[in-house]
């Protein structure tokens, strides 16, 4: 807690308590008395769904939230929130009974969430694999088969699981008869769906376009890339930011990947130094000069942090490969 900023604490509080509260209150008022004995388990399932939706929303990398708490914190909340939602889903599953398609869709969703959780802990949770060496070793061994792009697509199966939960709820008649609750439930779903689709449309049609103008080795397994983008005014880049890039016309490089900017962007040119740690960063070293690049950015809190401490002395430490 001592390392958390005020904005991070507020974000956790809003996500865990404030946003689910309207649904909790609506269900407490409208739930038929016949289901009083299982009301807690039903409420838990409702909260789990809201947290699942919020995890999807956080996956869209909202820039306004990035500038407040940083994208690493967003990803951390996304991961922890997903695990908490699955834990609540298990309690909901054990505390309620259902039949037919209601049970089937619920079980399918839970099994899919559980499988994706195990997969994500190995391939998507860098904050975890960096702390547990055996898990990092396992990840490197399996990356031969499960490339970065494949992992991203597998992770997107979470959307199918969320859809199954949505169908699961829509099949429960006493839930759909609760007017206020179902309006809120559908409203939350529509908002997150809209945010996700908008982000996907932007990633496909609205990103800044650039061209790889130079690539050169600067050390063993370390390359410097220079990218000139066409409309630099479309990007708000500050010193210390990082960007997501992809190469839409090159196989295995079509999914966005983050890299830090080395230079101060003043002429529409960005310089990246990329070490070949993963399959994407190794493959990008073989990209051809002139290749089309899509850029999403900027992200990061380096510049805001510096502005918050204008009178402090700043020491930058770097390692130089020789």
Task: Describe the protein.
The protein is elongated and about 70 Å long. The chain starts with 5 loop residues before the first helix and ends in a 14-residue tail after the last helix. It contains 14 helices and six strands. The model has no long low-confidence stretch (mean pLDDT 87). α6 (100-123) packs antiparallel against α10. It has helices at residues 6-18, 21-30, 39-58, 63-69, 71-95, 100-123, 126-129, 133-142, 148-155, 157-170, 173-176, 179-206, 279-283, 302-308; strands spanning 208-219, 222-229, 242-246, 257-260, 269-275, 292-299. It is of the alpha+beta class. It has a six-stranded antiparallel beta sheet.
Order of helices and strands: HHHHHHHHHHHHEEEEEHEH
Low-confidence stretches: none
Given the structure, what is the number of helices?
14
* Sheet with the most strands: spatial strand order: 4-3-6-1-2-5
User: Outline, from the CA principal axes?
Assistant: elongated
Please tell me how large the radius of gyration is.
22 Å
- Main beta sheet, described? 6 strands, antiparallel
* Structural class by sheet pairing and helices: alpha+beta
Helix % is 55-70%
**Number of DSSP E strands:** 6
CA-CA gap between termini = 40 Å
Strand content: 5-15%
pLDDT averaged over residues: 87
């Amino acid at each position: 807690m001592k390392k958390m900023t005020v904005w991070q604490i507020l974000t956790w509080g809003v996500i865990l308590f404030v946003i689910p509260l309207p649904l909790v209150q609506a269900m407490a008022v409208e739930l038929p008395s016949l289901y009083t004995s299982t009301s807690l388990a039903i409420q838990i399932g409702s909260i789990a769904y809201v947290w699942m939706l919020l995890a999807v929303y956080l996956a869209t990398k909202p820039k306004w939230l990035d500038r407040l708490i940083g994208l690493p914190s967003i990803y951390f909340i996304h991961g922890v929130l997903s695990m908490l939602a699955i834990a609540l889903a298990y309690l909901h599953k054990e505390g309620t009974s259902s039949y037919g398609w209601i049970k089937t869709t619920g079980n399918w969703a839970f099994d899919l969430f559980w499988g994706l959780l195990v997969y994500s802990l190995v391939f998507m949770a860098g904050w975890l694999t960096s702390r547990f060496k055996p898990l990092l070793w396992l990840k490197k061994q399996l990356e031969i088969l499960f490339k970065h792009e494949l992992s991203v697509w597998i992770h997107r199966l979470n959307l199918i699981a969320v859809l199954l939960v949505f169908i699961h709820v829509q099949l429960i008649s006493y839930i759909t008869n609760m007017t206020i609750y179902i309006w809120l439930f559908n409203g939350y779903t529509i908002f997150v769906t809209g945010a996700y689709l908008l982000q996907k449309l932007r990633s496909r049609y609205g990103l800044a376009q650039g061209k790889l103008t130079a690539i050169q080795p600067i050390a063993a397994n370390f390359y410097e890339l220079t990218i000139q983008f066409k409309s630099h005014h479309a990007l708000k880049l500050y010193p210390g930011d990082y960007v997501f890039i992809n190469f839409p016309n090159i196989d295995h490089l079509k999914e966005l990947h983050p890299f830090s900017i080395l230079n101060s962007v003043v002429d529409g040119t960005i310089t990246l130094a990329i070490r070949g740690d993963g399959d994407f960063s190794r493959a990008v070293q073989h990209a051809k000069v002139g290749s089309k690049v899509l850029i999403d950015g900027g992200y990061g809190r380096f510049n805001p942090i510096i502005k918050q401490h204008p009178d402090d002395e700043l020491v930058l430490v770097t390692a130089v490969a020789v």
